[in-house]
Design brief:
459 residues, single chain, Rossmann fold
């Protein structure tokens, strides 16, 4: 079978990166293979995210560019299909077809396993193919095996959300919370380990709300992590995204039990003000968040935190914003994602009074980013002269350079032989920037083609 080019443009979070990889997997039997350019591709797939600001307008901007490619290929007697997937597709399927009638496929995040039959139908039927059903269990049952593609991998264990934060569209685009059966997750993790994966990131919209079936009983997230840690070859475990109210004592204990669970946790808070959190319908207060962090640090003293913040939420006062700045300084988050509030149609916050101007939101975002970047630089500089185990997973820009990840997700650049790809090596940190570290091997690699892992360094 001759190969057909598949060009994928992915917007958004790690869940979308995982989904894009899986869409590529389901299309392989039709002869599709990834290509780095949309020019000449037989299928252009845009995987969208509705969390980001002006997500729909960014999609239509992309579609305008791909329309030109499609029309140029048609003039040459060739065909390019354009597919829109993900949360924007789920939320605005009819609008996509109205504004961009040249789109061939619109598919939601729960039904992309049906892409092959949708593509096949387009061979005889020129009508756009649309599938926006909610059926996560069917999707996971019908996906092919998740193949390893390097030493790190994402593994989706949970989808959907029952929290209904007033700013968020996820419950409307991804549906209710669904957890995959424990045995299915463990089988996939074993397959990844056999393929050479050493670090697995467990994914879910509310990943720590996991409650998968385990032979008729419910297994919680802590049990799943323990089971993954028992798999030979899996040396690092991460997870994202978690919700504070689902950080139970069993999960907190796991952070102190398992060396494989990295000492870095993404725990979104969104605001440092209780009144703001109430309007956001976050189900937690700041003291609860502080208490969770205190428990985590007692279990794992070297743990560091990442978080999410939203600034300029409707009605946010100067005092509420100052509470957020103060909390960001207090907690010393070593990484953070912060966003200006952007209304999502159909969400409760979109019709709340007190919508703030873009100028105020931009000013507050800049002030918060300055605090967070200072926190990050202070932590990175504190890593200088420490020896850290680094998992090298991609080449650097300079000849002989590779890039890896520290236990705290910092990119680390070092001069490392190519054959060390996929190894976990002890690296002495020699320099620090706001978003990355520089290092040098603490122990020389001997031999011409070793596969060596140096462990035991303090992280």
């Amino acid at each position: 079978m001759s190969k057909k080019g598949l060009y994928t443009k992915t917007f958004g979070c790690q869940m979308n990166v995982y989904d894009s990889q899986r869409m590529g997997d389901v299309l392989k039997p039709l002869g599709f293979a990834d290509t780095e350019s949309p020019d000449g591709a037989e299928l252009i797939l845009i995987n969208t995210c509705h969390i980001r600001e002006k997500a729909a307008e960014k999609l239509f901007s992309e579609l305008g560019r791909y329309r030109q490619i499609k029309e140029a290929r048609e003039r040459d007697g060739e065909r390019t299909l354009i597919a829109v997937a993900g949360c924007v597709a789920q939320a605005e399927g009819e609008e996509i077809l109205r504004r961009a009638p040249f789109v061939d496929i619109v598919v939601g995040p729960q039904t992309y396993h049906r892409l092959p039959e949708m593509v096949s139908r387009l061979g005889t039927d020129r009508a756009p193919q649309v599938d926006l059903d909610f059926a996560p269990e069917a999707k996971f049952d019908q996906l092919p095996a998740n193949e390893a593609n390097g030493p790190t991998a994402f593994l989706s264990i949970q989808e959907g959300c029952d929290k209904f934060c007033t700013f968020c569209v996820v419950p409307y685009t991804r549906g209710a919370e669904y957890s995959r059966p424990l045995a299915d997750v463990i089988a996939e993790a074993r397959g990844l380990a056999l393929g050479g994966v050493r670090e697995v990131t467990l994914l879910g919209q509310n990943v720590n709300a996991y409650h998968g079936d385990a032979d008729g009983r419910s297994a919680n997230f802590a049990e799943l992590i323990r089971r993954v840690a028992d798999i030979d070859g899996i040396e690092r475990i991460r997870y994202t995204t978690s919700h504070p109210i689902d950080m139970d004592d069993d999960l907190i204990a796991v952070h102190g039990e398992l060396a494989q669970l990295m000492p870095f946790l993404h725990l979104p808070v969104q605001s440092g003000s209780d009144s703001m959190l109430a309007r956001m319908n976050r189900h937690h207060k700041i003291d609860l968040y502080r208490g969770i962090v205190d428990k985590l640090l007692r279990a794992r003293p070297d743990l560091k935190l990442s978080t999410d913040f939203i600034v300029g939420f409707p009605g946010e006062t100067d005092a509420e914003f100052q509470a957020t700045l103060s909390f960001a300084r207090e907690m010393g988050f070593v990484q953070a994602y912060c966003f200006k509030y952007s209304a999502r149609p159909g969400t409760p916050a979109a019709i709340l009074p007190g919508q703030l101007s873009e100028a105020i939101k931009s000013e507050r975002l800049a002030a918060l980013q300055q605090v967070l970047e200072t926190n990050q630089l202070v932590f990175n500089e504190s890593c200088v002269d420490r020896v850290m185990p680094i998992l090298f997973d991609r080449p650097g820009r300079k000849p002989g350079q590779m890039i890896g990840r520290s236990p705290y997700m910092q990119p680390v650049h070092a001069m490392v032989p190519d054959h060390a790809f996929g190894d976990i090596l002890d690296v002495r940190i020699v320099s620090a920037r706001t978003i990355s570290l520089g290092g040098e091997l603490a122990v020389p690699i001997l031999g011409s083609n070793p596969s060596v892992t140096h462990r035991g360094a303090n992280v």
